[in-house]
Amino acid sequence: MDQGVIITVDVALITLQDDGLQVVLLRRDKEPYKGQPALPGGYIHAEVDNDSLAAAKRVLTDKTGLVSPYLEQLYTFSGGARDPRGWSVSIAYYALVNKDVLMSQENAADVAFTLYRVDELPLLPFDHNRIIDFAADRLRNKSTYSALPCYLLPETFTLTELQKTYEKVLGYKLDKSAFRRKINDLDFLQPVDEVRTGVHRPAKLYRIRPTKNLFLFDRTI
Amino acid sequence: MDQGVIITVDVALITLQDDGLQVVLLRRDKEPYKGQPALPGGYIHAEVDNDSLAAAKRVLTDKTGLVSPYLEQLYTFSGGARDPRGWSVSIAYYALVNKDVLMSQENAADVAFTLYRVDELPLLPFDHNRIIDFAADRLRNKSTYSALPCYLLPETFTLTELQKTYEKVLGYKLDKSAFRRKINDLDFLQPVDEVRTGVHRPAKLYRIRPTKNLFLFDRTI
DNA sequence: GCAATAGTGTCTTTGAGACAGTATTGA
DNA sequence: TCAATACTGTCTCAAAGACACTATTGC
User: B176 and B89 in one domain?
Assistant: First the structure.
């Protein structure tokens, strides 16, 4: 049955730089909006994709060479006005990745990413501005009660690095003492037998406790 | 472009009875699964629906005669295994309605609803069991930090009725004193110049403060 | 020793839970 | 006056914020 509806997945791949959250955009290689920066996306391939999550994984890997440590369905955008080709549905996902992992992948896969601050976007094709707004809001909101920001960090990290990450995502400062008390109580990190040495006192390294699911807290961080 | 993908909306319309949350199911009037109880749902009509929210409203009104006071996108279910007709996408919504409003509508619109407890469902067609589980989980979770349960009540209600509603949705008892303190602090109700008279001391009536958006709290109820 | 960062201890404030109290109605 | 429900006051406890303190490193 042909309902004449276009069905795609789009992925907002988000990372963290010194100056805030960034989203990965790629130059479109096809019409419409050929050559313009837009979210990685593509049609669902009913023959190869088990479901839309599989389609999102495939799109992300095909277009960026990455396998994200965190990928979650965001929202489904739809309507007759969002795509010049006609009535369309985009099942949008968002993904998180560490900046250094992303950059080394850019070299390895020989693709050209464009990074934009999520709060300073140009006008993008389709409703991609809205999708990115949704993704940033979801990330910021969910970070108040989950371990999500861990996925913006490398495999191991110090508590100070984790706190700075939460602060950049949330947009406000946290108290060091209270932060460490909560991290300790919530018990979602495991110590690694290493330290990060720098100019001064070395800091203990941690990794997120291995799990299939995102750690959700029963209170705020 | 025909991708051979079926695209539908399904609505989990939820109400509250004495013994807990109930979901409205209707007997399917078409194949597949003709005659079996299932969620109200239907194809997107690209010619008439502005977007999937409009489609969900239309489906709900066409099949039940209702306009729900609360309707929100839930999740998008997809894949090749959920529908015998082939690879399909269901943009699922959930809606809330008061039991008495629902029942009077059943008579007015001359439709036959079947109500099932969300925790005691038979095996349903497609992945409707999963959709209802998602809806009940979302409702219970969101009720801990929002005014959602108000939409399960009639237009006006007493504080005791509201507390009982929260308790039934959440599945645990709340302290009366603390509950009223919070309702007062959160300031999302407005008093109505009426009381509910019964056998004993009359109770003040309230309604939810008029707003376009759901009231979200910065803490737990 | 000094500067800088890592990490801890403790006081105060706030809000939640427990629970007992008072208030108002119909019969 | 009594039963039943509406509504309030107060004590205790736990978690959060503020902030000062100690610890460990390179130089």
Answer: no
